[in-house]
Amino acid sequence: MSGPNTDYDPVEVTPLKADQVEEMREAALAAVAAAADLDALKQVRLDHAGDRSPLALANREIGALPPQARKEAGQRVGQARGAINQAIAAREAVLEAEHEERMLVEETVDVSLPTTRRRRGGRHPLTLQSDLIADLFVAMGYEVAEGPVVEAEWLNFDALNLGPDHPARTLQDTFWAEPPEHHIVLRTQTSPVQARTMLTRKPPIYVVCPGRVFRTDEYDATHSPMFHQVEGLVVDEGITMAHLKGTLDHFASQLFGDGITTRFRPSFFPFTEPSAEVDVRCFVCRGTGMDEEGAQSCRTCRGEGWIEWGGCGVVNPRVLIACGVDPDVYSGFAFGMGIDRSFMFRHDLEDLRPLFEGDVRFSSAFGTEI
Ligand code: DAH
């Protein structure tokens, strides 16, 4: 910067001349007006309003003018710089608004377009429940056995000591395949897998069999003509009811929580003797029958403290004989429960129909996994 110089001829400080300042101002305003976007305007600001712009440099020369000329030159430069700054601010506002508008248009998302993102598939909650049950038994050394859903009448009934006069054999309960003389049914229970297993393997037998079964039930909140059961069968030397009880207690605690045990109520099934109905201790009230505050009946077990779970017993020697197992050497136990029913009370579901209607929103709520 030049130092003060009283002899300096102001006419010679070219950048401070009125027409020069005017020119710089015109050039700046033209550049501002021509700035097509915010980046260009940024450059214009640097070039025409920055520290190294012609007017900023001219401003520095003011000190070199004789005192009487400084005021006028200062005003001239100041006004020009003010006008430029104003023009930049105004242009900036316009460009920003334009930019925003353009972004709104460019970034518009048409939510009605088909998506390329695919929903991940999920396994059905009942499949997960079946697998979980099978896994619990596999962990105890059992094998998973399977049988066909279209089954021979003999295996579904006769081999299991369900004689020809048994009420379950009437047309009311059973889907019969045509023609009737072929004696083919849709299995009404997973128990024929017991017979199939004993006919094809030698003891010791430890099998679990989850699967689909069919009965001519009306479809409503608690019945479906197709549902799922899990069957268990053990045949070995010295097997007693005590082994059965211990196994089911373990099964219950694994499925419903620590300390959840079972109780047996005497019952009758043709394929077991003795037979029992199995109840599982309510895992919500843990057997008290009361809700959390102790004010009302527990919703899950309806105040009973126990929930009906399935049937079980010591395999009837007649079944062992029908399936080629020597009852003098071997004994066994068997049990069967509804998988859908277990799922329903485990998840506080009042209506089983959503389990069969294939709405993925229902399945997702139960945390389906691939
Ligand atoms: N099959 C029986 C039913 O569908 C359930 C059952 C009861 C299975 C006792 C068994 C058993 O293995 O021992 O009702």
Automatic annotation (TrEMBL):
TM stretches of this protein: none
Binding residues for Mg(2+): E273
Origin superkingdom: Bacteria
Cofactor: Mg(2+)
EC id: 6.1.1.20
Molecular-function annotations in GO: phenylalanine-tRNA ligase activity
Family: Belongs to the class-II aminoacyl-tRNA synthetase family. Phe-tRNA synthetase alpha subunit type 1 subfamily.
Name assigned to this protein: Phenylalanine--tRNA ligase alpha subunit
Species in which this protein is naturally found: Nocardioides astragali
